[in-house]
């Protein structure tokens, strides 16, 4: 097991940074389609995607949102954070095989309310911004150190009709 | 198969609405953990969650974001939309078993640029807002009518160590 820890409000400083990377595979796009219900063919059907301006299948934009939320929940401030708000501008597509890295930077701290503002930039492997935005979280007040729960084991089988 | 269609820019009017519902199951939370990498125990470990202010496991906030994005991509404007931006305020937790409904309403149309602004409200089965926000999309210019691709068939097995 790997460890998971957090930064409490009094450990957080303006300018503090963290990053979190994930390679986006075709299987992640299928899983995101399954969990959201968005079976838009630009994400799932290579022939359809070839007819679009993107020329091949692209990841759902909000998959980058999911990865931003993971960066906040796992890294900065980490477990015990309460997500208050998130803005996102979708700037470039993410293709299967791309590696995206979320860069978080603390830009404001409201010590009285315990709120922390984070600048969020998601870059692809060519250092191009795919998503930018701002997150606001309530920072944890208690230190948490725990074993990371195991990732659920997921198998993708043959497609089924959405009935 | 079910059909999927869209509203082109010239078919969209101020005040137009659409809605999209999804019951959030424990399995959706496990899938969202797998696809995002966010294995925060408040989402996955009932014992840990019992020690938090939420008292039991809650869905990832961004899972509601995924469902908003599905509403836009599947309903209004539908396929061919290009997601430009999204803001979200996370107002209440979503628990396994809750049914969330995304309500979209067109509030602005920039005909020259083809941009449409949508007010987004996600309500639970008790009509309480869990997420509110604003989306901006580039509306499709070509009518799309197609068969909905099938949902990927996903199986969740025993947990594996994230190592």
List the SSEs and their pairings.
The structure is a homodimer of 163-residue chains.
Chain A: E1 3-5, E2 17-23, H1 26-36, H2 41-44, H3 46-50, H4 61-74, E3 82-90, E4 99-110, E5 115-123, E6 129-138, E7 145-147, E8 151-160
Antiparallel strand pairs in A: 1-7, 2-4, 3-6, 4-5, 5-6
Strand content of chain A: 35-45%
Query: How does the helix and strand content of chain A classify structurally?
Result: alpha+beta
pLDDT below 50 for ≥5 consecutive residues: which ranges of chain A? none
Q: Rg of chain A from C-alpha positions?
A: 17 Å
CATH architecture verdict of the domain at 3-24 and 59-142 in chain A:
Roll
Q: If you average the pLDDT of chain A, what whole number results? A: 92
CATH class of the domain at 3-24 and 59-142 in chain A: Alpha Beta
Strand order across the largest sheet of chain A: 2-4-5-6-3
Shape, per Cα inertia axes of chain A: globular
What is the tally of beta strands of chain A?
Answer: 8
Tell me the distance between the termini of chain A.
39 Å
Helix content of chain A: 10-25%
> What is the multimeric organization of the chains shown?
homodimer
């Amino acid at each position: 097991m790997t460890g998971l820890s957090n930064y409490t409000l009094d450990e957080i400083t303006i300018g503090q940074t963290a990053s979190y990377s994930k390679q986006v595979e075709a299987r992640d796009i299928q899983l995101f389609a399954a969990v959201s219900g968005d079976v838009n063919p630009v994400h799932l059907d290579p022939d359809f995607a070839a007819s679009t301006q993107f020329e091949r299948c692209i990841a759902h934009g909000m998959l980058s949102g999911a990865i931003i939320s993971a960066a906040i929940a796992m890294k900065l401030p980490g477990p015990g954070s309460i997500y208050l708000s998130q803005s996102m501008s979708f700037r470039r597509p993410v293709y299967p095989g791309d590696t995206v890295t979320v860069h978080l930077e603390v830009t404001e701290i409201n010590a009285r309310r315990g709120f922390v503002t984070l600048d969020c930039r998601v870059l692809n492997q060519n250092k191009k911004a795919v998503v930018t935005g701002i997150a606001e979280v309530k920072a944890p007040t208690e230190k948490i150190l725990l074993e990371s729960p195991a990732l659920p084991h997921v198998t993708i089988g043959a497609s089924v009709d959405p009935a």
